[in-house]
Write a structure and sequence with these properties.
Blueprint: H1 5-9, E1 18-19, E2 22-23, E3 25-26, H2 37-50, H3 60-79, E4 88-91, H4 94-109, E5 115-119, H5 128-137, E6 140-144, H6 154-160, E7 165-171, H7 183-192, E8 196-200, H8 212-215, E9 219-223, E10 234-238, H9 240-245, E11 256-259, E12 264-266, H10 280-294, H11 298-317, E13 322-324, E14 332-337, H12 342-350, E15 354-355, E16 357-359, H13 364-369, E17 376-380, H14 387-401
Parallel strand pairs: 3-15, 5-6, 5-7, 7-8, 8-9
Antiparallel strand pairs: 1-2, 4-10, 9-10, 11-12, 13-14, 14-17, 16-17
Helix pairs in contact: 2-10, 3-10, 4-5, 11-14
The structure holds pyridoxal-5'-phosphate.
Amino acid sequence: MALDIHTLRLDFPALAQSVNGHPLVYLDNAATTQKPQGVLDALNHYYQSQNANVHRAAHALSGQATHAFEAARSKVARFIHAPDAKHIIWTRGTTEAINLVAYSFGMHSLKAGDEILLSTLEHHANIVPWQQVAAATGAIIKVIPLTEHAELDLTAAAALFSTRTRLLAISQVSNALGVINPIKELIALAKQVGALTLVDGAQAVGHFPVDVQALDCDFYVFSGHKMFGPTGIGVLYGKRALLEQMPPWQTGGEMIRQVSFEHTSFGELPFKFEAGTPNIAGAIGLGAAIDYLSGLDRSILAEHEQSLLQQLLAGLTAMPDVHIIGRPAAGAVSFIIDDVHPQDLATLLDMQGIAVRTGHHCAMPLMQALGLSQGTIRASLAFYNTADDIAALLAGIDKAREFF
Ligand code: PLP
């Protein structure tokens, strides 16, 4: 089946606009993706016709809202091949999902001398919460180093695992470099020493199908807004036995069974981890994003993205003063240009309607490890990008060069 990208793009109203007098070329998808009309309609429909709080009231609207909200949870479970919806906890996003595990599991289960294994490629969201846990518990953070190609060094990683390792927390795809990490191998190493595993899938779920049971990770986290859903909604998947053992993190309404001034008993999974009124519209919107993706042949979308990636890499490689960082394999390409500050280039590209991101990409330790004090320029793809977008970026760089 051939892919008609130009027709697909019509589903994303935000792509059809001009910026600074030029047609928008949106290459900042690792930061957030644009939303298809189906997601916008689902948000609108909820607020226009179903708006009510979930789980509590006996009236019709609340019943509809609850049904749509819980149906979205089931869609997420199917989307990542979780055994059922009880394994799916709504969060505000990847960051909050990691904080939930850090505070509920980390703060309560780790002790002095226990080790948390991270990688040099992690986003701050998968570093800072663990530093907080380490500071409070005396646990130690160890970091998997990089090879000369800016990929995770599996040999060095194997040597870092020991019986003291309690948790491996690792991204599936690097947001800064577009590198796919060998998470299957790392999860296998973690299992050999009895460590738990958390996979940050923020940059994975929008690009290829994910099967949490095949990965056999203990926790998997991601954000709705990076996979064509709304902001403010994300997911923590966890294995049931672990989630059952973990204490609640935030407490209050919705997450309880029985409350008295003497004692509170907590609700069952997943509600035990969902204190307060949730982001109902966000969850329904994420369900609509999953419906949208499920209606497409994702292997064809991935092939298309790969061809764009190769086009971009070939174009950048042909520019003698451009240096690609690492070996990008999914979504994002980071590069620097001799004697050009990334921010200056981004500003000149923006004047041509081309949206890219510059800086440290919330991965300061990675930038330090690579000696990139000014950060990089990052172009990041989604399936709705076109060969023309890539050509526009390459031409835009050439044009910007005239100013330097
Ligand atoms: N992890 C990775 C790999 C990311 O790319 C991001 C966002 O860029 C995050 C975590 C944090 O996601 P959010 O800001 O949606 O919580």
